[in-house]
Amino acid sequence: MAEQSEVNEQCCTLPPFKSDYVPVGKRFTLQIEGQDDLEVYETGDPDAKQALVAIHDIFGLHSNTLQGADYLAQLRGYRIVIPDFFRGKGWDINDIPPKAGRPALNAWVQEVGSWEKVQPGLIATVENARRLGAASIGAYGFCFGAKKLVQGAHLKLFKCMGFIHPTNFQPEDADNVDVPIALLPSQGEDPKAMDAFYGKIQTKPIADASVRQDFLDVHHGFASARSNWADPKLANRAREAYQVLDAFFQRNL
């Protein structure tokens, strides 16, 4: 699959909300052959048989993203792991909009977040979850992370996948997807692209098990780094998104 790495307009213009949230999970390190060690955030029940692998947005392991994972883990007792594919060097939260312009951000994402760099760590994270007893593994991704999940769909690592305010989805991204999906677009995504992608999903045997719920009253990133849990409306919509994911995973894991 072609490396479609461009980010959308709101991703280039809206900075993440700063937060003093203290995540309740822990961190551990995986060794990846040919790459630097991979730090992974873990939250939820470490003995859970249902595990979720989450892929962050361009800001890496931002506290708002981790707060969402903590919330989702508490809903049903999942074990959730979020590998830090940027090795602690996500995009600078103070450089939005990018001082060097949108092309600089696009180039950075294509370089540090290429599928070739993400794939080994993603496979290692899944293999580690299986070693630790996970019997059923799903995944969800935000923005950049959602794109990585569709790029890796051919590996068949997950029983089901959730895509929350995905970046730069193309209709053909659905071609290799053969497990149930949850699509949660915000106002920041191209509605024609969302319709075309989900339209292709609806032609597949996974159609009845898949779900789409639009969050068009909130901005791109509202459930990850650009979430604001101190704002009642945004916090409520973020919780609703995670509740949609919870119901979806319960049906399909």
Structural class: alpha/beta
Characterize the largest beta sheet: strand count, sense, and whether it forms a barrel. Answer: 8 strands, mixed
**Percent helix:** 25-40%
Q: Approximately how much beta-strand content do the residues carry?
A: 15-25%
User: Helix and strand succession?
Assistant: HEEEHEHHEHEEHEH
| CATH architectural group | 3-Layer(aba) Sandwich
Q: Supply the number of helical segments.
A: 7
- CATH topology category name: Rossmann fold
Q: Are there runs of 5+ residues with pLDDT below 50, and where?
A: 1-5
Write down how many β-strands occur, each being a DSSP E stretch of 2 or more residues. Answer: 8
In CATH's first tier, which class applies? Alpha Beta
- Going across the biggest sheet, name each strand in turn: 1-2-4-3-5-6-7-8
Rough shape? globular
Mean pLDDT over all positions = 92
Fourth-tier CATH superfamily name: Alpha/Beta hydrolase fold, catalytic domain
Radius of gyration in whole Å, from Cα?
16 Å
Count of discrete structural domains: 1
Domain Dienelactone hydrolase: 46-251
Protein name: Alpha/beta-hydrolase
GO molecular function: hydrolase activity
InterPro entries: AB_hydrolase_fold (IPR029058), Dienelactn_hydro (IPR002925)
